[in-house]
Amino acid sequence: MSESPTIVLVHGAFADAASWAPVTRALLDQGYTVRVPAVPNRSLLGDSSYIRSVVEQIDGPVILAGHSYGGAVITVAGAADNVVGLVYVSGYALDEGESLGELQGGFPDSDLAQHLVYTPFPIDGGEPGTDVSVEVDAFPEVFAHGVPLATAEVLAASQRPLAALAFGESAPVAAWKTKPGWGIVSRADHTINPDVERFGYKRAGLRSVVEIDAPHLVMQTHPADVAKVITDAIAELG
User: Fold this and answer.
1) Which terminus of the chain is more exposed, N or C, with fewer CB under 10 A?
2) Which residues contact 39 (CB under 8 A, 6 or more apart)?
3) Measured distance CA(182)–CA(193) in Å, rounded
4) Residue 74 is inside which H or E element, if any?
5) Is residue 136 a contact partner of residue 154, using CB atoms and an 8 Å limit?
């Protein structure tokens, strides 16, 4: 590839762009162009359409990296013509026609399931929606396990909920069927059962999968390792 791709980092549920901050800094220090858009976390279809619109406004090739729910988002948004690769970070690699709930439902629940909070929110002209978030007191252990407590408490207070609608929507396309992919499994993940990650990656036929003895927020605890997977992917693309 004659032109180095722009790296677009996509955050997941219960997080925002700041979750990628250590990796963003590492990639910027290496001279890469990086974008970290805010994902609305309102619906899989809406979030994917938004991220695709961001991608399609970037001149030149793009490599998408998605963490957690962000993996589902890049699976759909990655169908954009200028996306040249996908990197899944502790993420959901959905198949076409599959929802988050269906993929996750095939495996035992993680520790997160018993610490979710469901809160209604108004929708103009329609029935109220439901936001899903993590109990603030449990967040440091089940979502930010391994992150220094002072940082985990800030992440808990600023978490971005995910609308429950997103769990049931099916992916209309699976970009990994036509785009090369790479993956990271967090072996100490308390948020997603690591076997969900392994299954999705194997089914997608990713070019390589790295297992790290890390928690769900591997971008916070092992930023150099995550950055290397992304830059190695770029190097492999040539």
Assistant:
1) C
2) 10, 11, 12, 47, 50, 51, 69, 70, 73, 160
3) 18
4) helix 69-77
5) no
Q: Is 23 exposed, middle or buried (0-12, 13-18, 19+ CB in 10 A)?
A: buried
Question: What share of the chain in percent tops pLDDT 90?
Answer: 96
pTM above 0.90, yes or no: yes
8 Å CB contact between 86 and 5: no
CA–CA gap between residue 178 and residue 69 (Å, rounded)? 20
CB 148 within 8 A of CB 215: no
In this structure, the strands spanning 83-89 and 181-186 are: parallel
**Of residues 21, 78, 81, the one with CA closest to residue 47:** 78
* Largest distance between two CA atoms of the chain: 50
Output the CA torsion 215→219→224→225 (10° steps): 50
Distance between CA atoms of residues 9 and 195, nearest Å: 23
Q: Rg of the chain over CA atoms, in angstroms?
A: 16
For 133-188, the pLDDT digits (tens) are 999 999 999 999 999 999 999 999 999 999 999 999 999 999 999 999 999 999 99
Q: Do the beta carbons of residue 75 and residue 52 sit within 8 Å?
A: no
Alpha carbon distance, N-terminus to C-terminus of the chain: 5
Residues in the chain: 238
User: 228: Cβ–Cβ under 8 A, 6 or more apart, which residues?
Assistant: none
The pLDDT score that the predictor gives to residue 3 is 84
Neighbour tally for 42: CB within 10 Å: 17
